[in-house]
Amino acid sequence: MVKRFFDFINKEINGLHQAAYLLGFFAICSQILALARDRILAYEFGAGNTLDLYYSGFRIPDILFVTVASIVSISVLIPFLLDAYDRSEDDAKKFIDSVFTFYFVFMIVVSIIAYFATPFILKILFPDFAKANTFGELISLTRILLLSPLFLGFSNLLASITQVNKRFFVYALSPVLYNIGIIIGAVFLYPIFGLAGLGYGVILGAFLHFAIQIPVVLEFRMLPKLHFPINFKSIKRIVYTSLPRTITVSSNELAELFLISFASFFTTGSISVFNFSFNLQAVPFSIIGVSYSLAAFPTLTRLYSQGSHEEFLRQMIDSSRHIIFWSVPISVLFIVLRAQIVRTILGTGQFSWNDTRLTAAALALFTVSLIAQNLVTLFVRSYYSQGRTKTPLFMNIISAVVIVLGSFYLVRVFNSNVFFRDFIESILKVSDVPGTVVLMLPLGFSIGVVLNLLIHWIGFHFHFRNFSRPVLRTFFEVFSSSIIMGYVTYHCLNIFSVIFNTETALGIFLQGFLSGIIGIVVAILILFVLHSRELEEVWRTLHQRIWKARVVPPDPEL
How far, in Å, are 26, 159, 256, 295 from residue 167 at the CA level? Predict the structure, then answer.
């Protein structure tokens, strides 16, 4: 049984859509567990002080992960690893050992420094928390979570090996196990260790994220080990390449850090509302944007390095069309069904009706930028595959600055302009809910991300003139059908509100679920009448045996 399991996760997947749908399937599994995790947290604590501390504890470890751990980023390592493999497997093994040794030593040193600096950094980021008697718990939690970047960095290093060899199964399983670890922490470890128990669960999940890949890497005899002296020539090339990416990703993480720091000055529970809504909108982002960009990246890298620029462009067009095909209707459904989604997933225990309404409103504002988030992820990886890491660097810095300054300005306007405040609260139906100022953070976030998409799109179109036309055709086609879908779904909500008891969780779920299904059926019929190319390709791909795919990239469907 164990052997069959490892044989199964060892399957090689080559086609773009097959790999993307496989990653998407496991992303769904991971996100289901993530939603179960958030439901448990909402039930136990609600949008209150405990979860505010819990989410704040991730800030320093997350910054370390996107900075120091960027050395072992999959996007950065894959081109170098492919080049080493082209020379010989022995060169690839030496390369992996050098990277592992350097990362291990560097991360240990940085983590020790961060351990002692934690109290001082947290006082700057969360001055209000520093005055409370729970500040010691926040410090302890943050220090525990410092182990997370270490394990996740190791996992990224191993994942570069599994992805180069197209072992997408094992990579896709990692986030599933990560969320299982967090759930174990919330259910079993919190009652024993308190807030620290939640941290132990995160560390368990990060370790599982790393450990599941070890058997597959052993098969290729590529398990890294400490090796001295370090080949600093290779490390220098990686650091030089990864530095723009580090700043790119760090700018996004720093923008989120500032938003959460802003939220700490609002009413208690604002950080929790921000994170709950952000996590909910991250579900379609992980399933669509991340899955397609991950599946396309190795092929894009190979095509560009081989000089096959026409095939590279066709791969980008194909990926963009399908990201739009899935993103637009899901965005519309999330906006229309936001209250039903939040109440069904989180509305239990200590999570009040006001928490639900405020989180639903924040979710709608985050979801406005879903398609932009998904496409930016693909654009960034396309630039990395071309070796142009500086381009997304400047673009993302501009976006991060807009997010931070825009959110700060929106908060000021919201507090000072009654008309603007009443307009936002009225359109999102939260006029009588306290703490609505937190909604300016997801609004500022979405404005910055949409601007980021426009900049990336224009930059990519400048180098590939034939990109925009077929992609925009898909956008307008899918957008039109999605608007009609949203209209039908909204009116079905009114109909089913009479049929079902919306005071119960089951009634709310059935109201939203059936309304969404009817809306989706209408959208599919419209796309069928329009002879949607994407609909035909999805239907064809779903009828293939994804786990037995042996298509050699580039994808023959292009």
Answer: 13, 9, 32, 11
Longest dimension (CA), the chain: 72
Give the burial class of 171: count Cβ atoms within 10 A of its Cβ; 0-12 exposed, 13-18 middle, 19 or more buried.
buried
Helix (H) or strand (E) run with residue 317 in it? helix 309-336
The answer to whether 381 touches 427, Cβ cutoff 8 Å, is no
Evaluate the CA torsion angle 359, 364, 367, 368 in order and state its sign.
Answer: negative
Residue 49 has, within 13 A of its CA and on its CB side, a CA count of 8
Cis peptide before 149 (omega within 30 of 0): no
- Provide the 10 A C-beta neighbour count for residue 56: 23
* Residue 63 phi, psi dihedral angles, 5° rounding: -65, -40
Phi and psi of 201, rounded to 5°?
Answer: -65, -40
Amino acid at residue number 520? I
- What is the rounded distance in angstroms from the CA atom of residue 273 to the CA atom of residue 412? 20
Tokens coding 120: 């001082």
Q: Residue 364 is encoded by which pair of tokens? A: 């709608």
Residue 403 · residue 444 · CB < 8 Å = yes
Phi and psi for 127 in degrees, rounded to 5? -60, -35
Domain ranges of the chain: 49-230
Kindly list the distances between the CA atom of residue 8 and the CA atoms of 330, 542, 547, in Å, as whole numbers in the listed order: 31, 19, 8
Cα–Cα distance between 23 and 173 in angstroms, integer? 9
Structure tokens belonging to residue 306: 């081989």
210-268 pLDDT, tens digit per residue, is 888 888 888 878 788 888 888 788 788 877 777 777 777 778 888 988 999 999 999 99
Tell me which residue has tokens 């959460």.
260
User: How far is it, in rounded angstroms, from Cα 466 to Cα 502?
Assistant: 49
Of residues 501, 518, 357, the one with CA closest to residue 434: 357
Residue 231, CA distances (Å) to 103, 516, 558 in order: 12, 56, 40
- How far apart CA 481 and CA 182 sit, in angstroms, is 39
Query: What's the pLDDT tens digit per position in 356-375?
Result: 999 999 999 999 999 999 99
Ordered DSSP codes for 331-362: HHHHHHTHHHHHHHHH-STT--HHHHHHHHHH
